[in-house]
Amino acid sequence: MMGTSTQVQPLLINYKTLEEFKRFKEYGIQELTMLEDLQGNIVENNSESPFFGIYIGNALVARMSLYRVSAKYDHYFEPPQDYLELWKLEVLKDYQGQGYGKQLVDFAKSFELPIKTNPRVNSHNFWERMGFQKATYKVERDLGENPLLWLPQGVEEQNDKEE
Amino acid sequence: MMGTSTQVQPLLINYKTLEEFKRFKEYGIQELTMLEDLQGNIVENNSESPFFGIYIGNALVARMSLYRVSAKYDHYFEPPQDYLELWKLEVLKDYQGQGYGKQLVDFAKSFELPIKTNPRVNSHNFWERMGFQKATYKVERDLGENPLLWLPQGVEEQNDKEE
């Protein structure tokens, strides 16, 4: 460990973070919007973001986004309840295979809420190891998604196949 | 053209189609579910699917999914209205650059409804050429998506930034 911190921490919106985000493959409209909002003074420097990450020394090596979805929009879990949407989980290539992905997922699980994610197809093995299961695909709800769910004790998948 | 048909056609769920789907990169839980439903006699052979495609001779070379979302779930367009969600637009590598992607998008536009898609980040140039524009990113609505919109005449983006 050599004294480096590998805690999961919330990421603040600032130019350094946004520059580091460019190293991640899943850089998209979300990040571009954060940059524009910062440049246009629509948000303050060091505003909160939905991102959490792991630093090694000064460098961001892994990140994810987390958002708490309200029970009234819950179409996945039984009983319906607040749940976490997790996206853009990514570990930079040179740091893969060292447990940082698991560390981020464990952090998300620590809120003790159900979790939904919509991973890239080729990461299903990882999500299975993390205890996630495929949701029953419903075209009108899931459209182009590949939803995977993590169910804490006492929570089941909603099973009304028809809607 | 040599007599081959390059019309866009609705794709029916059968073993031949589902086998052809495996050649597309964006093969996921949606297709696996269609296969399981067919194997388990939950759907009949040649049931309708949300997919449309282009054949050259006997081979499926391009496809997309389209779903009509009801106005009551419209959080993108002003006035709120039925719109089309478009996903998994993909042309097989050997057939790219020949206008099949545009042909599929033009087919979607022919319904004269607004269209929303959530493309892979590296296809934004294509979508811009097709007349799509970035939606204003809203974390609580868009989460991990990169929404792009096509607005027919008289339709605007919903502009209530706060919700």
TrEMBL record, chains A, B:
This is Uncharacterized N-acetyltransferase SAMN04490247_0600. Keywords: Acyltransferase, Transferase. Transmembrane segments: none annotated. Its EC number is 2.3.1.-. Coiled coil: none annotated. InterPro entries: Acyl_CoA_acyltransferase, GNAT_dom, YlbP. The keyword Amino-acid biosynthesis does not apply. Residues 11-156 form the N-acetyltransferase domain. One of its GO terms (molecular function) is acyltransferase activity, transferring groups other than amino-acyl groups.
